[in-house]
TrEMBL record:
Stretches the record annotates as Disordered: 180-210
Chain intervals with Pro residues compositional bias: 198-207
EC number in record: 2.3.1.12
Record field: catalytic activity: N(6)-[(R)-dihydrolipoyl]-L-lysyl-[protein] + acetyl-CoA = N(6)-[(R)-S(8)-acetyldihydrolipoyl]-L-lysyl-[protein] + CoA
Domain Lipoyl-binding, chain residue ranges per copy: 2-77
Gene3D superfamilies: 2.40.50.100, Chloramphenicol acetyltransferase-like domain (3.30.559.10), E3-binding domain (4.10.320.10)
Protein name: Acetyltransferase component of pyruvate dehydrogenase complex
Role summary: The pyruvate dehydrogenase complex catalyzes the overall conversion of pyruvate to acetyl-CoA and CO(2). It contains multiple copies of three enzymatic components: pyruvate dehydrogenase (E1), dihydrolipoamide acetyltransferase (E2) and lipoamide dehydrogenase (E3).
Highest taxon in the source lineage: Bacteria
Group of enzyme by EC: transferase
Length: 458
């Protein structure tokens, strides 16, 4: 039977993806392992290989269109399989609203899924018996839709779903209730409603963000340009709202003197061995302040292991290594590639690995395992002259360290005013996992490592 080619899930947060380009077209001969298409998620662009050898048929996945994860985008027919031409309707890359979808190719015909047109019906109600055939088995529906249908005493299999792959969603059940003439869901009738004391004040309404129309009415028509959100910006917005609304952020700030670190950095870079490349001889590494910050924070986390944790409702997750994510600005947003086991790596290894990750992040060529997970993160805006700031924690992390610019400041030492290079750092913690005292201990360990950087070499 032909092999189904689906849009794969390459990110744990991924619900939809876009095909940025196809490398093979309808009727093309492909071999297993050949690159079929490039998929673009909110964080990276990845090449997807052919799962089998044969002829590519029914290429329904269009470029630059949101496609649900798991949706078929093409089929591959082996040499001994007969291709059954599909109708124009079957080639349209949409999820069926009504009709029958075969979950797998039939053993006899071995053809891709086809959808059967039916007579239009009332909203949310299936056509009369005999006008539509359905696959045996339970109807596809969301858990909420199942509960609402059960409460309304509705036959779920008689409701036509409007969700992906014909899945029944809440709106479908509510439409079915309206068409049936039943009371509106989640609004109990008078005899079912619990009595409410007359003196009870009404519950305050949850704050709602301004609608698009409300925002646009504040500006003169023609004075702006609307730029639709891409998947990356939508995901960033969703995760930031999630982080700020579910994580109790707590902030700690202190200053670190950099003179000893800058001197060691200069000394180590001067001692870097030379290697031959296509561009000639270049140093084997070139340390940055950020490379040393990553190492110092990783060592500090191992010195204060209780702070190297993640919060879950049932238990505290204590990490055995420091996997440090580093915020990298890319066109349209940011991404956080991870230096795994940073506590065990040398400064030169961290430096070279960070340069490679940052380069591939900007071209959106990172693999999911290179930016998913991690135990903490570092965000550095010092290169922009920012003195200090507070970063938003990236779940499931419990900490993130915000690095400000190093600058010369007057400091008092032994009763005398001296000039020193100083940078301000702010630690954001999830107060459920890392409270104030523990966060202060972690930040103190980081400060000691920055001001006594020889500890990074042992």
């Amino acid at each position: 039977m032909p092999t189904e080619v689906i849009l794969p899930k390459v990110d744990m947060d991924m619900a939809t993806g876009q095909i940025s380009r196809w490398f093979a077209g309808e009727g093309a001969r492909v071999k297993k392992g050949d690159v079929l298409f490039e998929i673009e998620t909110d964080k990276a662009a990845m090449e997807i290989d052919a799962p089998a050898s044969g002829t590519l048929r029914n290429v329904t996945g269009r470029e630059r269109v949101d496609i649900p994860v798991g949706e078929p985008v093409a089929w591959i027919y082996a040499d001994d399989e007969v291709y059954a031409a599909e109708t124009a309707q079957n080639k349209a890359p949409i999820s069926p609203q009504v009709g029958e979808m075969s979950a797998k190719p039939t053993e006899g015909g071995a053809v891709p899924p086809t959808f059967q047109s039916v007579t239009p019906a009332l909203p949310g109600i299936s056509p009369p018996r005999g006008e539509i055939s359905r696959s045996p088995g339970p109807a596809r529906a969301t858990p909420l839709a199942r509960r609402l249908a059960r409460e309304a005493n509705l036959d779920l299999s008689a409701i036509v779903g409007s969700g992906p792959r014909g899945r029944v969603v809440r709106a479908d059940v509510e439409a079915a209730v309206t068409a049936k003439g039943s009371p509106t869901l989640e609004q109990p009738t008078a005899d079912m409603a619990s009595p409410v004391p007359a003196e009870a004040p009404p519950a305050p309404a949850a704050p709602k963000p301004m609608s698009d129309d409300q925002v646009l009415k504040l500006f003169a028509e023609g004075s702006y340009e609307l730029v639709p959100h891409d998947n990356m910006r939508k995901t960033i917005a969703r995760r930031l709202v999630e982080a700020k609304s579910t994580i109790p952020h707590f902030y700690l700030t202190l200053d670190c003197e950099l003179d000893a670190l800058l001197a060691l950095r200069t000394q180590l870079n001067a001692a870097a061995p030379v290697k031959k490349t296509d561009k000639g001889e270049v140093p084997a590494y070139k340390l940055s302040v950020n490379d040393m910050v990553i190492k110092a924070f990783a060592v500090a986390l191992m010195a204060v292991p209780d702070a190297n944790a993640s919060w879950t409702d049932s238990a505290m997750v204590k990490h055995k290594h420091a996997d440090v994510g580093v915020a990298v600005s890319i066109p349209g947003g940011l991404i956080t590639p991870i230096i795994r086991h940073a506590d065990e790596k040398t400064l030169s290894t961290i430096s070279n690995e960070m340069k490679d990750l940052a380069s591939r992040a900007r071209s959106r060529k990172l693999k999911p395992e290179e930016y998913q997970g991690g135990t903490t993160a570092v965000s550095n805006l010092g290169m922009f002259g920012i003195k200090d700031f507070a970063a938003v924690i990236n779940p499931p992390h419990a900490t993130i360290l915000a690095i400000g610019a190093g600058e010369q400041r007057a400091v008092v030492k032994n009763g005398e005013i001296k000039i020193a290079n100083v940078m301000s750092v702010t630690l954001s913690t999830d107060h459920r996992a890392v409270d104030g005292a523990l966060g202060a201990e972690l930040l103190g360990a980081f400060k000691r490592m920055i001001e006594n950087p020889m500890g990074m070499l042992v």
